[in-house]
Amino acid sequence: MFHDSAGDSININSLEDEQRYVRDSLVQTDQRQFVSRSTAPVRRKVVETQTDADVAFLKKVEPKLMDVLDENLALRAFDGYELQKYDEDDSLRCLHTFQSTNVLQIIPKAAITSLSWNSSGSLVAATYGYTEHDDWCKHKSFLTLWSVDRTKPSQHKSEFTFESSSCFTAIHFHPLRPGMLACGLFSGDIRIYDTANDQDCLLITSSVDDASHKEPISQVAWVPHPSKHGVFNLVSSAQDGKILVWQIDERNRAMHICACSVLTIGNASMKSAGVSSDVEIGDPSIFTAGSENGGVFRCSFDDSAAKIIHSHAAAAGLEVHSAAQFAMEAHLGPVTSVDASQFHRNVVLTSSSDATIRIYNTLQYSPYLTIQTPAPVHMAAWCPCRPMFFATASSSGHLNFYDLCKNKVEPVSAVDVKSKDLFCLAFNSKRPQILATGSKTGSIQIWQISDSLISTNANEQEEFFSLFCK
Question: pTM of the prediction?
Answer without folding.
Answer: 0.75
